[in-house]
């Protein structure tokens, strides 16, 4: 009987019937999450359908995670073993959650990471708001808002064409690039160990120091070269150590270097010693308001997602 069964199975494989069945079954092996999910293990891929909401608490997902257009995923204490993809106008909120693969957000509403451990992050559009998190790969954002606070980044951080790129009380072990930000950026009480470059930014740049864009009591450290070039932003470097050289060319106005700035290498370009006057037009947000604004947006979207998920009931994971 065992021999006959083996022969029958071998015949199905040879004819392609078994392979077709297996392939078809694998194609459908994903789990849809709508509603509230608990501490279970999802052995395949997980999808939050377009326009729907899913909350996960203590959930483990072995496959990929996809948040489709307009959908919301709010996770706490979760573990995702593979990649996470966030679609257009979708929202991702991770607290105390680990993502072992790359996180990609394309034209998303936003991504909020708090006490999270995430690998690489690539975001085009929307906001990336990372607080007290560990980011293990390159973090690259464009055409959105970038705010990093109390976090450790093991590789490079790039803010290209954003509204602003702000780094507070954080460590960047790779290179730092802030390019073409319409509202400039802040580097406050933080450390970067690769080369740092601020180029083509408008409005204001505060690289350490206090008073220009807000309070920054802690000192900052640039472990390599620092280039501040071709900016129209009012720019200040103060209360910071630059271990490498400083390049300050093409800036209008010239980069202001404060009394508490220490540059160990060669200074190239034009700098100014006296801080320029600085004022903001009515209704224009100061950097200290950026965190509050992002927190408000994240809180409101997450609350709406939780309400929708609760109304949908328990998800069948």
Q: Mind explaining what this structure looks like?
A:
The chain is α/β, with parallel strands linked by helices and 317 residues long. Helices cover 16% and strands 42% of the residues. It has helices at 2-15, 17-27, 287-312, and strands spanning 30-32, 35-37, 41-42, 45-48, 53-57, 60-61, 65-67, 72-76, 79-80, 84-86, 91-95, 98-99, 103-106, 110-114, 117-118, 121-131, 134-135, 139-149, 152-153, 157-160, 164-168, 171-172, 176-179, 185-188, 191-192, 196-199, 204-207, 220-222, 226-229, 234-237, 240-242, 246-248, 255-257, 261-263, 267-269, 271-272. It has a 24-stranded parallel sheet that branches. The chain is elongated, with a radius of gyration of 24 Å. The model is unreliable at 1-27 (pLDDT under 50).
Number of helices: 3
Largest sheet: 24 strands, parallel
Query: What share of the residues does DSSP label as strand, in percent?
Result: 35-45%
Structural class of the secondary structure composition? Answer: alpha/beta
Segments where pLDDT lies below 50 for 5+ residues? Answer: 1-27
Write down the Rg.
24 Å
Shape: elongated
């Amino acid at each position: 009987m065992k021999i006959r069964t083996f022969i029958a199975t071998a015949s199905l494989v040879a004819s392609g019937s078994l392979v077709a069945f297996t392939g078809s079954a694998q194609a459908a092996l994903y789990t849809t999450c709508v509603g509230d999910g608990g501490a279970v293990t999802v052995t395949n891929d997980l999808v939050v359908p377009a326009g729907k909401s899913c909350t996960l608490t203590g959930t483990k997902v072995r496959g990929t995670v996809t948040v489709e257009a307009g959908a919301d995923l709010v996770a706490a204490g979760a573990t995702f073993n593979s990649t996470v993809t966030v679609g257009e106008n979708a929202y991702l909120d991770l607290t105390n959650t680990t993502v072992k693969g790359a996180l990609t957000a394309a034209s998303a509403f936003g991504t909020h990471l708090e006490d999270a451990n995430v690998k690489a992050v690539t975001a085009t559009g929307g906001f990336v708001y990372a607080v007290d998190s560990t980011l293990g790969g390159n973090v690259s954002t464009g055409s959105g808002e970038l705010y990093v606070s109390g976090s450790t980044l093991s590789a490079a951080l790039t803010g290209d064409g954003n509204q602003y790129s702000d780094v507070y009380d954080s460590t960047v072990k790779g290179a730092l690039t802030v390019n073409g930000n319409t509202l400039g950026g802040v580097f406050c009480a933080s450390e970067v160990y690769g080369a740092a470059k601020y180029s083509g930014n408008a409005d204001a740049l505060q690289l350490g120091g206090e008073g220009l864009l807000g309070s920054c009591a802690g000192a900052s450290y640039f472990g390599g070269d620092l280039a501040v070039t071709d900016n129209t932003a009012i720019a200040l470097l103060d209360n910071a150590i630059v271990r490498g050289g400083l390049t300050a060319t093409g800036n209008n106005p010239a980069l202001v270097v404060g009394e508490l700035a220490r540059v160990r290498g060669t200074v190239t370009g034009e700098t100014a010693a006296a801080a320029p006057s600085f004022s903001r037009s009515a209704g224009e947000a100061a950097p200290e308001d950026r965190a509050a604004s992002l927190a408000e947006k994240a809180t409101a979207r997450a609350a709406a997602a939780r309400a929708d998920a609760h109304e949908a009931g328990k998800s069948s994971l």
